Hints:
transmembrane helix (chains A, B, C); 2 strands; mainly alpha; homotrimer; Ammonium transporter fold; 14 helices; ammonium channel activity (chains A, B, C)
Amino acid sequence: MEQATPTLEELHQLLRMSETINMEIFYWWCIALMVVIHAGFLSYEIGASRLKNALTAGVKNILAFAFIVPTFFFFGWWIYNGFATGIVPNLEGAAASLPWSGSMGPNIKDNATGIFWAAFALFAATTASIMSGALIERTRMSAFIILAIILGSGVWILGAAWSWHPAGWLTTEWGFHDVGAAGCVHTIAGFFTLGVLINVGARIGRFNADGSANEIVGHSMPMSVIGLMLVIVGFFGFLGGCIIYNIGGQWTNIYGQPTTLSAFAFNTLMGFAGGLIGAYLTTREPFWMMSGGLIGIISVAPGLDVYYPPLAYVIGMGVAAAAPLVQKFLVKRGIDDAVGAFAVHGFGGFAGIVISGIFIAGYPNMGEGVPPVNFLGQAGGAVVLALLGFIPGYLISLLLKKLGVLRVPAHAEVRGLDLVEVPAKAYPEWALTGASITVTSAPVASEVAVGAAKPA
Amino acid sequence: MEQATPTLEELHQLLRMSETINMEIFYWWCIALMVVIHAGFLSYEIGASRLKNALTAGVKNILAFAFIVPTFFFFGWWIYNGFATGIVPNLEGAAASLPWSGSMGPNIKDNATGIFWAAFALFAATTASIMSGALIERTRMSAFIILAIILGSGVWILGAAWSWHPAGWLTTEWGFHDVGAAGCVHTIAGFFTLGVLINVGARIGRFNADGSANEIVGHSMPMSVIGLMLVIVGFFGFLGGCIIYNIGGQWTNIYGQPTTLSAFAFNTLMGFAGGLIGAYLTTREPFWMMSGGLIGIISVAPGLDVYYPPLAYVIGMGVAAAAPLVQKFLVKRGIDDAVGAFAVHGFGGFAGIVISGIFIAGYPNMGEGVPPVNFLGQAGGAVVLALLGFIPGYLISLLLKKLGVLRVPAHAEVRGLDLVEVPAKAYPEWALTGASITVTSAPVASEVAVGAAKPA
Amino acid sequence: MEQATPTLEELHQLLRMSETINMEIFYWWCIALMVVIHAGFLSYEIGASRLKNALTAGVKNILAFAFIVPTFFFFGWWIYNGFATGIVPNLEGAAASLPWSGSMGPNIKDNATGIFWAAFALFAATTASIMSGALIERTRMSAFIILAIILGSGVWILGAAWSWHPAGWLTTEWGFHDVGAAGCVHTIAGFFTLGVLINVGARIGRFNADGSANEIVGHSMPMSVIGLMLVIVGFFGFLGGCIIYNIGGQWTNIYGQPTTLSAFAFNTLMGFAGGLIGAYLTTREPFWMMSGGLIGIISVAPGLDVYYPPLAYVIGMGVAAAAPLVQKFLVKRGIDDAVGAFAVHGFGGFAGIVISGIFIAGYPNMGEGVPPVNFLGQAGGAVVLALLGFIPGYLISLLLKKLGVLRVPAHAEVRGLDLVEVPAKAYPEWALTGASITVTSAPVASEVAVGAAKPA
């Protein structure tokens, strides 16, 4: 193991190389754990489907991943690097992110681009998967893929360029601070999904003619709950991807302010635990409890680097306790979010950002002339990102609806999508109850009733 | 990437900073993988419940995590740092662990406290989860939460302060050596659980009026078995949390003695493999095989740093082969441990420590005046930790029993806890056999018979 | 935290020690994530079995792991280090890998052997698990264990010594390049399995007397699909184990050529995504889609370090689209591979290597006199490794067949292996359809028909 003693400068370069390798390793494991998010979402989403749609839900979830990766290679990464200042691309700054750039492939002089691209691609796939569960059991596969690509390789990453980038205009102009991506990932995904839900409409049988709602529940709550715990595992990869390993010094957040993984560890666990309790208080059931754990992490994500941990517990608890009420409100409005994706990600992210405007206002941003964190900046940023999600989600799904390609035909929906989409059976040997056909607690209404209704 | 060449001292500080970051990363991944333990336990425990109790088992498991995290923040971590010498707290030494200390939150001068606290909090949650499975299907939720907090944020961490801490009195006085936490985590959790099991009593139908036993089996053995393999994955996080990353040098175990991750890798895999085989030899079924894999790791945990790997295989095999017999012995005594938690963790940990007293006796402990590892110290330490677990588990559950709040009413137990605890259904579309109501192989006895009985 | 300033030489040694620790950590996490492969395979293989065989499939899968670890300790690791040049062992070079060597156990002077051994042992267990699924529902447990040990601790590691080792003769003589182990792991495992399948024969009912085929499908496709996504998670551990952390410099591949984790990240994700799409195009169902994701990674594994990422996408897509046709071809030939293991691993690995001979021909190998990568070397290497797998798989299973110990008796197979092998029930409370007894779409043929048949 002995070698000639290097000079001071050589040794410095050796240390920098060592740190480069360690940075690459860190994000490699972030990527691997973000794949766990996909194993978790797959389990969760299949479990949340009725038997007649279970495999179709799996296919949809898997296809989202399959389409996000190449599209994020061809244009998603370029968007992140080109649009920090708004909607006019910085062509020069983003040139290295063009798919034919020497950085966008194996390059032994570049230990960074591939690993960062891959981590962001997993963020993108996660964003698309957030929408996926909400739309099960009636959305057409091709329409979903189009929406997933627009959300995962377009909209969210534009939001990331604006709000989760050292030069993003929301930060440089308004002092926006959201270290854990509650805005660009969760708020955008949630509001985009809300826009789509309005157009795709409720599943047949979800609402009665008088506007009252029936419960439609998935075929395996254990599968969903275990899947959600895997999503929590994957969150450690996701949040690891939100902190910057610096050659030669302390961690920084995405905006360049010093922080520590220790801070992230404190607040992630406390937010998670608070969220579990909050949702338990208002629902007492495990699907919402685990969703509450997610909400807890999402709602403290903006201030992971600065919250006092018991405050993170309280924020997580409060937002998670409120989220099931948001879901009930949507049901009252005739909106059928099959897994509560808007309540968890849209509301959880939005509320978390607004709340952070109260508790971390005054925290300085790095850089000359950048305003400190302030309530209006946080709340305004949350609104900008919510709109950035909602508007394209609504408009594109409206277009798809007008074209008649957003939703499967009613007869296919009633018989179950697996019959038409998937040449295989989920559980060929099990006996089923009539419940697989009629899951409603009241006469089936084939039309979607919108308006005042008793909460499910 | 070029910078001015630093001085030798500056470069030394840069290296130390680099190592600090790497330490923090290492434990971050330990934490993430310990969350996998919880995904695994959730799957395992739901699978081990009958259909009528499946969701309640999940809720219980999730709530344990939710309550351990904040209580471990408020007092668990302080106990670890304050009670190494016995039962008189070292108030000065533990001051930095008080919840209002500057270390107990984001602090860019402290890259250690948060990550260590979080790793220990996951150990705590694991300890509580060990008890969780044993008590399913009849324990009251509120009583379980109280017991989980006492075990997870109180008892085990006091045991850790005594036996798994460089200044713990069991080590400094008796030479106790238990690098993989077989004592403070597994032995304590197992014996605490045993104490509770005596008071909570068997599930209705588990024993007949004549004392003979019926088998009560969970509704999905595949779910349990796959969950246990995830627990094994998580064990790599757990055992990683048992080795100390040192700035400027070789790994040490928790007592400050040099060791390597390589040693841990050798003996973890060999103990695991031996345990699988051992349990196969005496049971031939996958639930006990996977439990045997756990037992294998637990039983070699005390000497992970020093065993010759084939010895670890043999120890794991022997202890795992014996554990199902321990479970049968408990059944004969009328004790209904629903998942064999005592046999796996209590017996496995205890036996592993005692056996280590034979094979690693004479191994020197670091520090002036600290006795070397010796059989009496190991066996005595195992007894101390077993009592430290058993006594509070027994007494507190006895108190809860006297107060009439330990166990659910018999009619709720017979109908199934999901009906009363959880406003949701686990599997609404599946057809069930009568087996969900009467799982016994003999006439149902509605009273719990305790005493001599034929093994199941 | 302050210390005396070290000398330049001392500081260099401190840096080297830091890197040694980081190397050990990197492979520790590779090992942990490769255990995820086993959780995934367990889920996948149980799900792919009919209910009557579900637990036996789990036991078989677990036992493979349990037997590979010790046999890989006693002779597998020695084979890797002794047979790089062919079939005459290098006794001197492999002496440190003998089980009684000081390196083969805890040794505070050696932070490498244990962690490398463990990573390779997990590769070995993965190799054996590849075969495992193909043989479910009719292979005798003892025969499977023998075959698993020969494959996992013998054949593949000999192939690794030849083709995935800096001194392996296939590289030094022919210029063979296969950084991601498509050959020694996947091609060998697939062709070994094919050899066994020919002798073990099809499951009763798989083929009709006229040679036409019936579908036999597993009892839970969701369980299989989720398991496969966990295998993908584990692949990041597997591929991490394919890159060499170097003290003092850039990553190298197993042959000593410089590369980056970034390159691996680019091509792993792109190959995976392409494979998902490819299999979707030809099958439209989630089991093959997830298998296609595996095929995508396997097929780009030879050139992970050099492919342009969109090329990896295309290769993955093409090979994965073709694999279901390979499975159909086997069915036509009367070969009953229950999970498509040959199509995924044997065909996927073989095709990936041959294709790499087109796209990376001319890439220089390090070292004097070592030929550059070339088409004949790649294709020839693929053939050598395919034969190295096929011949022992075929001959040993033929011997076991002649001895009458390869396959369970027909009556046990018809009634289900769980009845004879496992004293437990998988799902005691569920109602089953007749499908658990008669899964064929035509009259059951109790004899295995081999020959031309319509594809299933």
